[in-house]
């Protein structure tokens, strides 16, 4: 009886271990992962639009597209590429802003720390613990 309970328990743990990544994939990932995924998606959109532009130019040269169809598709794919580039710029701007903010917070925290004892002190005042 104990062996059966032990086997069922081990199978349950193994199943939970195997299903953990699947459960996480369904939810919204954390900040850096989400940013990385968004950046990958924007890169894919940009690459697809640029590839399509090259393809329609080739099709126009061999006579498969009329001039009017080519212009219509060219404007559409250029707009998609520009939207993807704007999205990439937004992602990179957000990343730079976050890093700058974190650096500023770290600098303020360092200024609130006593250089002698490491205790907290009010800005510009001597340390209440050691007087330094």
TL;DR?
The protein is mainly alpha-helical. The protein is 77% helix and 0% strand.
Task: Characterise this structure.
The protein has about 130 residues and is mainly α. The protein has a domain at about 30-110. The protein is built from 3 helices and no strands. The longest helix is centred in the C-terminal third of the chain and has 45 residues, at about 65-110. It starts with a helix and ends in a 21-residue tail after the last helix.
What would the keywords be for this entry?
132 residues; flat; mainly alpha
**Roughly how many Å is the radius of gyration?**
28 Å
* Shape field: flat
CA(first)-CA(last) distance = 68 Å
The count of strands amounts to 0
Based on helices, strands and strand pairing, what is the structural class?
mainly alpha
Number of helices: 3
Q: Please indicate the percent range of residues in DSSP E strands (runs of 2 or more).
A: under 5%
Relative helix content: over 70%
């Amino acid at each position: 009886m104990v062996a059966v309970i032990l086997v069922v328990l081990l199978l349950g743990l193994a199943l939970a271990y195997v299903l953990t990544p699947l459960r996480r994939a369904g939810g919204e990932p954390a900040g850096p992962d989400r940013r990385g995924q968004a950046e990958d998606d924007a890169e894919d959109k940009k690459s697809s639009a640029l590839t399509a532009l090259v393809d329609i130019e080739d099709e126009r040269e061999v006579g498969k597209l009329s001039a009017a169809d080519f212009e219509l598709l060219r404007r559409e794919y250029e707009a998609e590429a520009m939207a993807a580039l704007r999205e990439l710029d937004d992602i990179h701007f957000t990343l730079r802003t976050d890093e700058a903010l974190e650096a500023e917070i770290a600098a303020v925290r360092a200024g609130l720390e006593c250089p002698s004892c490491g205790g907290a002190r009010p800005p510009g005042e001597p340390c209440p613990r050691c007087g330094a």
